[in-house]
Structures are given as structure tokens and as C-alpha cells.
Amino acid sequence: MTDILDAGLLLSWYDTHKRILPWRQTRDPYRIWLSEVMLQQTQVATVIPYYNRFTDAFPDATALADAQDDRVLKMWEGLGYYNRCHNLLKAMRKVRDEHGGRVPDTPEAFSGLPGVGPYTCAAVQSIAFGHSLAAVDGNVNRVVTRLFALDGVVTSAGVKRAIQDAVDSAVSETRPGDFNQAMMELGATVCTPRRPDCSRCPLRSGCKARALGRQEAFPVKGAKKAVPLYPVALAVVVKDGKILVQKRPAKGHLAGMWEFPGGRVLTGETHEDALGRCLMDELGVVPAVGKLVGSVTHAYSHFRVQLYLYLAEVGGGSPTSKKGQPVDWITTEDLNRLAFPTANRKLFPLLVEALG
DNA sequence: TATCCGTGGCT
DNA sequence: TAGCCAAGGAT
User: What is its EC number (predicted)?
Assistant: First the structure.
């Protein structure tokens, strides 16, 4: 019953054991919001330096709204899920233009902003404004499915409803922000995916999974899909000591990031075939493909790639964007001024060595 | 409901 | 080592 998820026990534990984190040293809704977006699917230790750089460079919502897209994306570089960055920027501009620069203080107004889903809305509105809304994230899923030994795949409608009902009933009316953070803190530091330390858990006496000795059996996950490996051929087109780079489209995979031209090697194609096809489609040029600079592999969420980087030159004509994506010639020093995906960035040392 | 969307740390 | 996982949202 309500004893199983006891907000009083949880809050007492949190008061004693919570970690000191940068976004816990402020009540600024903008900073709390920024931290929540960065923390989506991203670990605390990874976020901290990014959060500190952002708050230094953009101390409030209007400062971020006024910033140039490329500068913000460059600061996000390496954090992943780049649509979070694009949506955050869109949202800040709405805050500036439609809310007088103040973060909306009601769930109704806040939840309509780009990149703000059910979790982020509940987290920000409870932590920053004291609204009694229960936030459900991966930690909460794990803690609650264990407390109540919820069988069934955690992403199924029934289990999701059971989890939401449990936290809705338990969330503190007086300290909802701390309640939400306490649930997540418990999941992150005690009720961990592997080898949870039940001896340190304030809710251990009522935990059904522990009573069954099956803590690690929850949450139940669905079947996982195999991830394909795609070969990708890329070109370092060199001319007058400069390198050709292009910007990815504003939507989709790695939106707005810069990269070397090239693309998937289709079945039956040679690497040179693929480079010829891709550079003609994207830039309207026929490359003279030279030696292989090097190769790296990289894993994304739903597929892996093996990148093969080739030296190349273009003869007559100059590369021109055929798909509306900006194109630029840059020096090796400029590589660090633009936002590149990590997979491309892995190739930089090989490239610098090859161009020696 | 299922899939897409990154990266780094951990075991 | 290879897979798992993390303070999710959009479509």
C-alpha cells in the first residue's frame, strides 16, 4: 500500500544522502530546466562540465535565446542527442518572445514548449515552482517496478499506468521537487540496475522484489533488436591547403553538425563507387579518390558504422551544395571551431597525420 | 506502440 | 569484450 512507497522515509533519506550537484545549488527555473534537458538519457558526470559551460556562457533564458545556433551547437558537441539542443534553443526563443523572458510557471504553459515532454514538465515544474507533479524517468521505473514487483514489460501500457499511479499517490504535496529528485537519487545511487545495495535503501522493508530475492529481475525489458553495421566512405577533399566540409540538414540524424562529404557504401559498391555517387549527389563533382587515410568504428543507438576516410581531389568545377546544405573550405585549425559528430572527430588525428 | 535519436562509462 | 544503461522527446 502507501507504506511501500513512503514519501516521509524517502525524503528523510534524501536529506541526508543527496549528492551536491551544480543544479541543486540554485532555484533558477532556467538552470533547472537546462539541467533536466542535458540529463535526458545522459549520466550526471557527463553533464556537469557541459552545464557549467552553458551557465557561464548563457546565464539566463534570454542570453541563450539570443545566441547563434552554431555557437550553441558547438557547446553541445559531444553530448549527443542534438535535437535536444535545437529544441532547447527554440524553446528559449519562445520564452523570450512570448513569455517576457521568464520560464512559464504552470504545467499548462510549460508543457507546450519544444523538447518538454511529460518527464521534463513534471521535473521542472515541481523543482522550480513547487507544483505537485510526479516525474517518471528510468530511475523511477526501476525503483517502482521493484518496490511492487511489477511483472510485464516496463514499456507496456499497463505497467506504465501502474508506475504513474504509484508515484501520483505518493508524491509529496509540500516537497514535490525533493520527492522527485529523491526517487531518482535512490535509483541512481542505491537501487541501481545491477547489484542494488538494498542494505542502504530507506524503502527496503516494503520492497516486494527484495522479499522475493529478485531485485535484478525488474524492470522487465522487451526483446532487443540486433544493430546493423554500415560501411561508410568519406572524403578529405584537399585544395590549396584547405579541406572541404559540409553541414548536415537541420532535421534528422546529427542535425546541423558539420562532416566530411561521403555516405553509405551500398551493397555491391566499392568505396570509390560510393564516394563518386555521394559527392555527385551532394556537391556535383567527380572526385579523384586517393589513398585511405584510416578507418574507425562508431556505435549509434540503432546502428553502427565503420568509417573509411580517403584523400581525394576534385578536378574541374567547384563543389556546390545540391541539397541546400552549407559547404565550406577550412584549415585543420578550423576543425576545432565547428561542431563535428564524435565519429568524425575520431578521424581528426589520422587526418592531421596524413596531411602532415 | 515502435522507432529514431549520441555518447561514454561500466561490467 | 560486447552489451547494457543513463534525470526522454518526437514522430
Answer: 3.2.2.31
